[in-house]
Amino acid sequence: MKFLSHFPFLCLLLMAAMASTAAHEVRPALLDIREEAPGEFSILFKTPMQGDARLSLRATFSGRNEALTPMVERPTGDAMVQSWQLRAIEPLAGQRVLIDGLQSTMTEALVRAEFQNGNVWTGRLTPAVPSATIPEAQSKWEVIAAYLRSGVEHILFGFDHLLFVTALMMIVRDWRILVKTITAFTVAHSITLTLASLKIASLPSAPVEGVIALSILLVATEIARKERGQTSLTVRWPWAVAFAFGLLHGFGFAGALADVGLPGGDIPLALFSFNLGVEIGQLIYIAAVLFIVAMIRRVVTVPRQAVTAVAYGIGTMAAFWTIERLTNAFL
């Protein structure tokens, strides 16, 4: 494909952006509300931390409620988790939930409320809109919109998944094989995302994230091998390798969906919408890459040796992620 002669330049910019973003990553806060008995709720509020520093956030409700237990705090390494129980003197559905302090941050907060009757509401609060009214139930269109948006956002901010797709695009030089390769990756991670979300299959999230980083490292080495004129399974059948690693990446997507949760009465619809959102986000990314490269081709000529340099850059970043994640997983 002609665009690949300029693809390395874009990859260098992409990796710089990823490194900068990862270094200044601010993860969303999570407020989980579960009705354990009629009118009684367990509350879990997870606030992101960077080292010993954490965001100063507080979850409040607009109606009359009383605490049943004192708040318990415990750090988990990358977050501070607060948990307590309350009784809703006024129905919780209809109250406004506010993440106080969110206005002064650059992050978001995910709120999930699950009631005993099976109704589940998921909302996303932002610095501009830090509060929302908890509805009695979500309509099917609201479920579709919420989970579609979550899927798109997860893939577009999932830099490890995007870097893997980027590496595949550098290996495959024919657009027809590229379509087959990306399709295989999509089908594979859709399978494991569905199985994991329905609790048919599962893997521990921490090791999975480490092995996902390792998969990027392995594909980066294949780029360098191809540039040296060597062949391998990945070079000959990239779609097969993409499918195999896609199964693993699906468990990573399932971890993100687990944070959001699935509505009891609309599990198939929510799962389909999230999966569709992931694919839309992936297609947006690929289309953006192809468009930007086409623009770069008009003004810049990049030497072929840049491909090898980018392969080493991808491999270095992936190796760092692998060591960091596996260390955190087993220590």
Automatic annotation (TrEMBL):
Q: Does the keyword Transferase apply?
A: no
Which segments cross the bilayer? Answer: 154-172, 237-258, 270-294, 306-323
Leader sequence segment: 1-19
Q: Which InterPro entries match?
A: Put_HupE_UreJ
The keyword Membrane is annotated on this UniProt entry:
yes
Q: Which UniProt keywords apply?
A: Membrane, Signal, Transmembrane, Transmembrane helix
**Any idea what this protein is called?**
HupE/UreJ family protein
Please report the organism this UniProt entry assigns to the protein: Flaviflagellibacter deserti
